[in-house]
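Hypothesis: this fold can be encoded by more than one sequence.
Test: take the structure tokens below, design a sequence, compare later.
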């Protein structure tokens, strides 16, 4: 048997014991005609301000999953996001793959990131989106232990992909739009300075992308709101979202 196969069996055993308790928020079950746009890796100049303009033009709100490396570099931009009425979640102290860290280090970066962001905001941080969307069962537990809920997505704009077109991004983001969809966008580009992977940044007009997606949503009777706002009249839908590649072994299994 391969190591990956053994890991899958181990994960299945855990999930069988508590299938409803282990999972990340992927959408919202709601009777309201709302979608939830979310933005990762910011705040960063030239990107976040374009996103804010598009949201303002549509009287929309969103949830921004910020990197503390970006927050420290651009404190004024974070203030603008908050002043515009948007919700803030944590994306990480940096952009490392959490499952590659030791248990102690992962616990530490989660706790320190949450504490630093809460100190800046003066409010509780409820949501965490794992960098790269990567988490193991163990790191999912550590996110909960830190007092946050793991949030992933049910739709994506592919705005991270340099090898696609703007039309294809809009089509991807709007193909399955429905009530409670959580859409993934980016208002930053994580790289080595954020301890992230060195990947090429796509060249795109972020204002145009979001404007076009929101226009399609509005034509379907859907308006954009933050995750917290959507959950005021809805319930979170969770699903297991775990990496089982050996590179992403939970620390307990790695040992």
């Amino acid at each position: 048997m391969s190591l990956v196969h053994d890991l899958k069996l181990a994960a299945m055993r855990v999930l069988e014991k508590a299938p409803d308790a282990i999972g990340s928020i992927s959408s919202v079950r709601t009777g309201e005609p709302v979608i939830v746009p979310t933005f990762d890796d910011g705040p960063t100049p030239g990107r976040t301000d374009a996103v804010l303009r598009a949201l303002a033009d549509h009287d929309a709100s969103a949830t921004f999953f910020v990197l503390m490396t970006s927050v420290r570099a651009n404190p004024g931009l974070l203030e603008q996001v908050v002043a515009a009425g948007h919700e803030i979640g944590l994306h990480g102290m940096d952009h490392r793959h959490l499952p590659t860290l030791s248990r102690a280090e992962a616990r530490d970066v989660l706790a320190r990131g949450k504490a630093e962001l809460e100190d800046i905001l003066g409010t509780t941080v409820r949501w965490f989106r794992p960098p790269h969307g990567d988490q193991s069962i163990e790191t999912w537990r550590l996110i909960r232990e830190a007092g946050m809920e793991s949030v992933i997505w049910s739709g994506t704009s592919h705005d991270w992909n340099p090898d696609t077109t703007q039309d294809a991004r809009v089509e991807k983001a709007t193909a399955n739009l429905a009530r409670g969809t959580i859409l993934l966008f980016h208002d930053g580009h994580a790289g080595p300075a954020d301890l992230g992977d060195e990947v090429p940044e796509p060249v795109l007009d972020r204002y145009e992308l979001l404007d076009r997606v929101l226009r399609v949503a509005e034509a379907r009777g859907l308006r954009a709101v933050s995750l917290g706002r959507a959950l005021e009249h809805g319930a979170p839908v969770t699903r297991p979202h775990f990496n089982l590649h050996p590179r992403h072994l939970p620390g307990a299994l790695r040992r």
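The radius of gyration is 18 Å. The CA atoms of residues 166 and 246 lie 34 Å apart.
Hypothesis status: open.
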